[in-house]
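for the writeup, i need someone to sanity check this before i put it in the appendix. the sequnce is what the collaborator sent (i think, or maybe the updated version? ugh). structure was predicted straight from it, no edits. if anything looks off just tell me and ill rerun, i have time this weekend
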Amino acid sequence: MKTPSDWVVVTGASSGIGAASLDALVQRGFGVFAGVRRDRAAGALLAAYGRRVVPVRLDVTKEGDVLGLVERLRRGLRARRLHGLVNAAGLAFAAPLEWTQPADLARLLEVNVTGVFRVTRAALPRLRADRGRVVNVSSGAGQLTAPGTAAYSASKFALESLSDGLRMELSSAGVHVSLIEPGPVATPLWTRLEAQMLRAERAASPSSRAAWKEPWAQVRARLAQARALAAPASAVADLVVEALTAERPRARYSETPKAELVAAYAMDDAERDRQTLLAWGLTPAGS
């Protein structure tokens, strides 16, 4: 049960789901250690929330920053309780795999998977001592893969597996681990994603661009439609708070009905591929 001395770590707290989660947690009486990468973001948080938020410089890909977070927790918590860790920092990416550079995939995995692992591992001693909770922000893309987003899905599928293992391993310690699996969310990631997609297209060879001209237009259109229908980040933040405060937190908070996932994976691979391609406006081979 939460008390006024309960604190939560939120990574990626300067924008998007992380910022919305921070706001929702403060409104509910939590203190927040807010992981940010820039001093300007730290100043803005202090101005907005005062002493209920402690900004911490945190790039989840840097071991030194993570060790700095641990030290900040040691000094800042004292008799307070670490109620939870919200791993909200993440990257989006969209491009055909043949346009995806090894460095692109490495960066996705470093932030979306290894970064979560690094921060969680560092915070575990305190989380175990305080019987805290871990909430990992995944995606519907961690459940089903679509054309043009396979690299991103790979990172989220890995995060799902990491979270499942951690949940089982920590169950006897009373540390709950939950996944948040939203669909499209209205965050600044979309603007960065659009720029990234243009860079990937321009870097591709002329022959590859020609081969992908029509399919890529369909993928872009599908992503634009998803952006137009995106839910507010505050709706996802509400799920984060529920995972942190529910008496019996769920393993997954997902917008995709379980029956739909079961149906998708009950199909053979060829039929699932065909249905996914059709859903994305692409023509399956042989059609």
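The chain has one domain: 6-279. The chain has a mean pLDDT of 93.
thx in advance!!
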